[in-house]
Amino acid sequence: MDTTMTTRDRQPVVLGVADLAADPGLAAELDAEAPRILGDLVRAGAALGWIDPPSHDEVAALVGRVTSAVRDGDGALRAAFLDRRLVGLGYWLRHARPTHRPHADLEKLAVAGAAQGHGIGRALTGALIADARSAGIEVLTLDARGDNERALGLYRSLGFTEYGRLPAYVAVGELRYDKVFYMLDLRHHG
To answer: Where are the beta strands (DSSP E) in the chain?
Structure first.
């Protein structure tokens, strides 16, 4: 099925774990399509942390781990749908170390290639920021590959600021990219 957006007026429905649990059809869509979306993005060179596309089992284990963290109050998972079709997902996880518990990392944000540029990443990130605020997170951090200007621009537009950079840190074969660190201090933002 084609995920091409036919109009900029279409708004994604962004759901959390409880919403997905209440709708087995959408939960099944997440299970079936998340590996495809992530795999397609990785094959296209997206900076998601994988060199090779993740397997269905690998993505299922990741979603299971994040869902468990959500139930424990230590994470948030959001999935974006257009016409009940998964077009994006993202999550954050609270830091485990006792001195870092007030903080969390936005670990993944992925939007299907054909759906990019239509506000889905912004909707997902906005929902994840709201979840972090509700969970009492003080500082939400993330890291991104330095050449991912579209994502970095999105994060800056939402109030994230760069707090560090490791030059030529990310290795993809012979290529090297900066690893850029961003933060959103929720104690002082919005």
So the answer is: 13-15, 75-82, 85-94, 103-111, 139-145, 161-172, 175-185
Residue 26 sits in which domain range?
A: 13-137
Question: Tell me, what CATH number does 18's domain have?
Answer: 3.40.630.30
Does residue 10 contact residue 118 with C-beta atoms inside 8 Å? yes
Q: Does residue 19 lie in a domain region?
A: yes
Residue 6 reports pLDDT greater than 60? no
Which is nearest to 147 in space by CA: 120, 159, 165?
Answer: 165
Task: For residue 168, tell me if it sits in a domain.
Answer: no
Q: Is the pLDDT of residue 113 over 70?
A: yes
Q: How far apart are CA 58 and CA 60, in angstroms?
A: 5
- The partner residues of 81 in beta bridges, in order of sequence, read 13, 86
Confidence check: pLDDT of 2 > 70:
no
Q: For residue 173, with 0-12 CB atoms within 10 Å meaning exposed, 13-18 middle and 19 or more buried, which class applies?
A: exposed
Query: Does residue 4 lie in a domain region?
Result: no
Could you tell me the CA-to-CA distances from 1 to 7, 46, 56, 82 in Å, in that order?
Answer: 17, 22, 19, 12
Token pair recorded at residue 135: 């969970």
> Which pTM value belongs to this model?
0.91
Question: Quick one: DSSP state of residue 52?
Answer: S
Total domains present in the chain: 1
Cα 139 from Cα 132, distance rounded (Å): 9
Q: Is residue 51 part of a domain?
A: yes
